Amino acid sequence: MMLPQFKLLTDSIALCWVHEGRHYKKLTPYVACHQKALDDFLDDFWDYYQDLLAYKDSPSQQTAEKLRSEFWKLFDTKSGYQQLDERKQLTLLKSSELLLVLEHPELPLHNNPAELAARTMVQRRNISYATQTLEGTQAWDTFMSLVATTRKLGISFFEYVRDRISHLGNIPSLATIVREQSALNHFACS
Fold first, then answer.
1. Which residues contact 4 (CB under 8 A, 6 or more apart)?
2. Domain-embedded: residue 190
3. What is the SS3 assignment for 12?
4. Looking at 50, 83, 102, which one is the last position of a domain?
5. Are 38 and 29 in contact (CB under 8 A)?
6. Rounded CA gap, 181 and 177, in Å?
7. pTM summary value
8. Per-residue pLDDT reduced to its tens digit, 170-188
9. Which of 14, 19, 21 is nearest to 100 (CA)?
């Protein structure tokens, strides 16, 4: 699901394949042939997902065209199970967002890391009973962002803060490290 608050932030938004797969897991067929149709479709869905992961490692125009064609075959083929076919039509409406990875292989296929980070924030807020002031909220958000960023960069948060407080300068700024690491990655047309 694309949240409306993100629609105007960028020209394109990629959707999460794991979340799209969850819609199909919610289907509850009672007839044996429908159960088989769903099971077969889910096998094909996750096989396609694996193909997308392989594409990200070794992208080519030829493979992108093949995957685009396979997407339409997978989601536009009727199964005879009405709820599954209706769900597949809803996925087809999101084709540009789900297939954005074919134009930008550097994009992740799922957003689980972002969701886990948000869940961590909520858990800590619940444990501490939230903040009492606007300044406390801003400080909390700043430090949580620093913790998450240093963790992703493989830097000790405590060492980073100690370096900043003591003005040692042994650890470059996080902005510098992020720029250096992003320069090492090739982002196709991004």
1. none
2. no
3. coil
4. 102
5. yes
6. 6
7. 0.66
8. 999 999 998 888 777 665 5
9. 14
